[in-house]
Amino acid sequence: MSTAAVPELKQISRVEAMRLGPGWSHSCHAMLYAANPGQLFGRIPMRFSVLMQMRFDGLLGFPGGFVDRRFWSLEDGLNRVLGLGLGCLRLTEADYLSSHLTEGPHVLGLVRVPLYTQKDRVGGFPNFLSNAFVSTAKCQLLFALKVLNMMPEEKLVEALAAATEKQKKALEKLLPASS
Amino acid sequence: MARARRLELAEALALGPGWRHACYALLHAPDPGILFGRLPLRYAILMQMRFDGRLGFPGGFVDSQDSSLEVGLNRGLLELLGEAAAAFRVERPDYRSSHAGSGPRVVAHFYAKSLTLEQLLAVEASATGAKDHGLEVLGLVRVPLYTLHDGVGGLPIFLENCFIGAAREQLLDTLQDLGVVEAGAFSGLQIPVRLRQPSVDSGNLR
């Protein structure tokens, strides 16, 4: 994977997405976040609380799920699905960020995303990125952080590089040495 | 990162005052639930996403005020998990292993505690009210013990996440004793974990 830029999925416009035929399923996911003035250990600013979830398949993703467009608008479907787990929330079309084409329920827990990087340059966001993600969710997270100005692109690239380096090293330790 | 080294408890307790002790607990309860109408959940087992972006078990450092490892552990669980942790106590019989090496002069003691499903659900429900929620703990997650049709989703993929210290090994060791995985089923990343079929007896820890 090239780490020169933040990798992105094939994005389509909302209009194009709505024109896709009945053979397509729509799933809606939401990144819920809030400004967080707190500090970890009294010195590392947290900046934002961003929610993700551990899915039934052991991957990290965003809360949400499939929306049956025969009965619901995207936002109504999303609010319904979020309401099942989270309650008292209403997303609107103003909160819409992006649509992606991608291939193909039971949540194991909600986790916040650490947006800071610790002194060792690995703890926090880089480690978090080296967890197992649904590929869409990882791209959506990086995209949202960039587009919402929650993290400068250089920092995103740096964290992604550290995470990829870590995974590469772990893989090298595991595979038999090749000459 | 250096691999954690296993120690006998007596050896660990004999370490000098320059060493810090930390205790962590795997809380588990039998879970009769079934996912998608066909995958038995078997147990609810709790782990946490730590402040450093790694998965680990709840617990924390034992300090000099604590009269024993277990006193420190139970205090740590209360801070991390909230009020529902006051409903049970982790004791010496729940102790499983000690490891050194995940930090300079730090020895980590690992426990596994059996709860009722009601007690575990109460922990999950009160966790967001805990003192350390959003700080040292970014959230609690359950461990998926099943494998999906693709042979990868579920426990094998979960094990690909980023773990602190010996947490992955401690998890698998406990799963072996609970009869969920076969002995020697795991030796590194990306190696399929062989699951044992659930039997009538849910299995007990030694």
TrEMBL record, chain A:
One of its GO terms (cellular component) is nucleus. Keywords: Nucleus, RNA-binding. SUPFAM superfamilies: Nudix. Its main location: nucleus. GO terms for biological process: negative regulation of double-strand break repair via nonhomologous end joining. It is found in: Nucleus. It holds the Pfam family Nudt16-like. One of its GO terms (molecular function) is snoRNA binding. PANTHER family: NUDIX T16 FAMILY MEMBER, TUDOR-INTERACTING REPAIR REGULATOR PROTEIN. This is Nudix hydrolase 16 like 1.
TrEMBL record, chain B:
GO terms for biological process: mRNA catabolic process; nucleotide metabolic process; sno(s)RNA catabolic process. Signal peptide: none annotated. Residues 18-168 form the Nudix hydrolase domain. GO terms for molecular function: 5'-(N(7)-methylguanosine 5'-triphospho)-[mRNA] hydrolase activity; IDP phosphatase activity; metal ion binding; nucleotide binding; phosphodiesterase decapping endonuclease activity; snoRNA binding. Its EC number is 3.6.1.62, 3.6.1.64. SUPFAM superfamilies: Nudix. Its cofactor is Mg(2+); Co(2+); Mn(2+). Keywords: Cytoplasm, Hydrolase, Magnesium, Manganese, Metal-binding, Nucleotide metabolism, Nucleotide-binding, Nucleus, RNA-binding. Its main location: cytoplasm. GO terms for cellular component: cytoplasm; nucleolus; nucleoplasm; nucleus. The keyword Transcription does not apply. It is found in: Cytoplasm; Nucleus, Nucleolus; Nucleus, Nucleoplasm. It is an enzyme of class 3 (hydrolase). It catalyses: dIDP + H2O = dIMP + phosphate + H(+); a 5'-end CoA-ribonucleoside in mRNA + H2O = a 5'-end phospho-adenosine-phospho-ribonucleoside in mRNA + (R)-4'-phosphopantetheine + 2 H(+); IDP + H2O = IMP + phosphate + H(+); a 5'-end FAD-phospho-ribonucleoside in mRNA + H2O = a 5'-end phospho-adenosine-phospho-ribonucleoside in mRNA + FMN + 2 H(+). Belongs to the Nudix hydrolase family. NUDT16 subfamily. Homodimer. This is U8 snoRNA-decapping enzyme. The gene is LOC109026149.
